[in-house]
Amino acid sequence: MAATSRSNHCSHSKPQFSFLFAGKKMPLKLFWAFALVIFTISRCFADDDHEMEEFLKREFSLSKPYQGVGSSGSSHWELMGDAMVTTEQVRLTPDMQSRQGAVWSRIPCHLKDWEMQVHFKIHGQGKKNLNGDGMAIWYTKERMQKGPVFGNMDNFTGLGVFVDTYPNEEKHIERIFPFVLAMVGNGSVSYDHERDGRPTELGGCNAMVRNLKHDTFLFIRYIRRRLTVMIDIDGQHEWRDCLDIPGVRLPQGYYFGATAITGDLSDNHDVISLKLYQLTVLRSKKEEEEEEEEITIPSVDNMELLRLGQTEEGMSGIAIFFTALFSMLGCVFLIVIGLVVYSHWNESRRKRFY
C-alpha cells in the first residue's frame, strides 16, 4: 500500500490511497468494491459446514459406559421391551425370533437445527435374505410405544429413518437390501410393510451393513428445514450421500429414540452410540422471516412430486422398455403425419402457382 501527498504545501492535503493490482495502481474505493464482490461471491458458494458451528448435547446423547441407562430415573434414556445394556452396546434385539426393543430419550428436544450421528451394528447367524427385520432412528411426538414399524407404533408423528434389512415386496428386484429410507408421518399416515414403505418414503439408498468387521455409521442432519441422511459403512471414514430433501417441516419438542424388531427371521440390532449436535447456523433476514411461523404438524413440501419421482424410479425394466418403445413409436408416427401433411400442403401450393 502506498500513500501520496502534495509536498509543496505547508499543510498536508488528504492522502490519496491506492493499491497495486497486476502491476497497476487501484484506487481505494475501487479496491474495496472489488473486495466486497469477492466476499459476496464466496458467501454465495460457501458450504453450510463453513457457516455453522456444532455443539455436542450430552443430555440427548447416548454413549459408553451407558451409566444408569434403563435402570435409573435420573438417566436421560429409558429402555423398553427386549432391549438390554451391555458394556459394549445397547442391544435392541438379540438374534432371536419375535423380539422388539427400544431406547428412548426422556427429554423432549427443542433444538431448531440439529445433527444426529448413529454408531450401530447389525449382525447375526442368518444368511443373505434370511435375516430381519431392521432398526429405526426416530424423532417423534410419541415415545415408548410398541408397534409393527421396526418396533415402534404405526401412524407416528414425526421423522423415522429406517434400516430395512428384509425385502417384503419381491416384485421390485431392482432394490438391493439392506436399504436405508426416511419417512415423515403426521399421525394419520401408515407405513406400508407389504411395499417396504415405498408409498411414503422421501428417498433412500442401499446399505450393505450386515456382519461387517468395521464400524458402521448413520448421519441425520436437519437444518434450515432440509433433511440430509448419509452413511459411512465402507470402513473408509467417509460419508456417502443417501438422501437430501428440502422443505421438511419438523416441530420442536419431539423425542429421539432407536428401535428394532425381529419376526420369523432375526438379527442382533446394536446401538453403540447416539450423538446429537446442536447446529448454530447463520441465516439471512429472508430465511428468518420465512421460519418465524411455528410448525405444529410434520409435513414435507411438494410431497406429491416426490412420490411421482419415486413411482417413475420404481418402474420395472420391462415397463421402462415398453414406455420408451411406445414413446419412440409415437414420435415416429407424429413425424410421418407431419411429413404427409407438409407434402399435401406443398403440392396444393405448387398447383396454385402453376
Automatic annotation (TrEMBL):
<dbReference type="GO" id="GO:0005537">
    <property type="term" value="F:D-mannose binding"/>
</dbReference>
<dbReference type="GO" id="GO:0030134">
    <property type="term" value="C:COPII-coated ER to Golgi transport vesicle"/>
</dbReference>
<keyword id="KW-0812">Transmembrane</keyword>
<keyword id="KW-0325">Glycoprotein</keyword>
<dbReference type="GO" id="GO:0005789">
    <property type="term" value="C:endoplasmic reticulum membrane"/>
</dbReference>
<dbReference type="InterPro" id="IPR005052">
    <property type="entry name" value="Lectin_leg"/>
</dbReference>
<keyword id="KW-0430">Lectin</keyword>
<keyword id="KW-1015">Disulfide bond</keyword>
<keyword id="KW-1133">Transmembrane helix</keyword>
<dbReference type="Pfam" id="PF03388">
    <property type="entry name" value="Lectin_leg-like"/>
</dbReference>
<dbReference type="GO" id="GO:0005793">
    <property type="term" value="C:endoplasmic reticulum-Golgi intermediate compartment"/>
</dbReference>
<dbReference type="GO" id="GO:0006888">
    <property type="term" value="P:endoplasmic reticulum to Golgi vesicle-mediated transport"/>
</dbReference>
<keyword id="KW-0472">Membrane</keyword>
<dbReference type="GO" id="GO:0000139">
    <property type="term" value="C:Golgi membrane"/>
</dbReference>
<keyword id="KW-0333">Golgi apparatus</keyword>
<feature type="transmembrane region" description="Helical">
    <location>
        <begin position="318"/>
        <end position="342"/>
    </location>
</feature>
<feature type="domain" description="L-type lectin-like">
    <location>
        <begin position="54"/>
        <end position="279"/>
    </location>
</feature>
<dbReference type="InterPro" id="IPR013320">
    <property type="entry name" value="ConA-like_dom_sf"/>
</dbReference>
<protein>
    <submittedName>
        <fullName>Lectin, mannose-binding 2-like a</fullName>
    </submittedName>
</protein>
<dbReference type="GO" id="GO:0046872">
    <property type="term" value="F:metal ion binding"/>
</dbReference>
<keyword id="KW-0732">Signal</keyword>
<keyword id="KW-0479">Metal-binding</keyword>
<dbReference type="InterPro" id="IPR051136">
    <property type="entry name" value="Intracellular_Lectin-GPT"/>
</dbReference>
